[in-house]
Amino acid sequence: MKDFLTKSKSFTNPEYGCAPEEREISDYISHGVINLDKPSGPTSHEIDSWVKRILNLEKSGHGGTLDPKVTGVLPVGLGDATRAIQLLLTAPKEYVCVMTFHHEVDEDKIREVFNEFTGKIFQLPPVKSAVKRELRSRNVYYSTIYEINGRDVLFRIGCEAGTYVRTYCHNIGEAIGVGAHMAELRRTQVGSFTEDNHLSTLQDVTDAYHFYKEDGDESFLRKAIMPMERAADYLPKVVIKDSAVDAICHGANLASGGIAYLSDNIQKNSIVAIETLKGELVASGNSLFSSDEILDLESGFAVNVSKVFMKTDIYPKMWK
Length: 320
What we know:
The chain is α+β, with helices and mostly antiparallel strands. The protein contains 8 helices and 17 strands.
């Protein structure tokens, strides 16, 4: 497997499981994720409800709440993929923002303070937030100014999950001493979901489902919906043998002997995605070792499994 380290060269039995892209359309929908372009106005919860109604599903869930006026990338998990979408809650995010200063500011001063607000920063979450209101640190990976027009600044920010851009703007205004607020915000990336990656509107989804139901044409749905495995694309991978799949599905931790391939960037205590040789998402968990250590591991557990996404009995039981 390209770009993977080989622990034990293995092959998969075509009788069990299925490559995510080759699932029957009903399974493809119920194990799918929509990279939705959220419009301004509705809440993220309302978007969930509309998607669920459009596709006639019992459940759906989104990967990271956006305020009603905020637009952009809102991954929505469908059916059984609702649990998998939770992997995106800790994924890095990217936004494009318009910030407005309350008084005129020298352009050089703006750029100087923006540089200071890159890297590790401290934030107090807003009063209206889903987390406890206490000071906490977050990482800003980059903050790029595109344009300064009077008191308005257009910039792109890449940041750790849980970074509040509204608070970021407020704090920059305080640091300069003139005050500032977030005037407009669009999310452009959540993990591996970007504006360039099958971004669909609610109308796109509605039309695609209509073509499927009325004409039997699956192609538009398969374009609007991606396999739930895409929610784990940003994570390091551990690929397991067919013989280990059902044990993991029953809640077992991943033993060294069940590993076939693994990413070369796994760090100890980091979150990893566990996948089959066909690319199916089985589970996620915390790696007990680094990539090199796992390669050398002859026995014992390599990953503590925390969440299981695949149902049991899809692969045969090969454990006691």
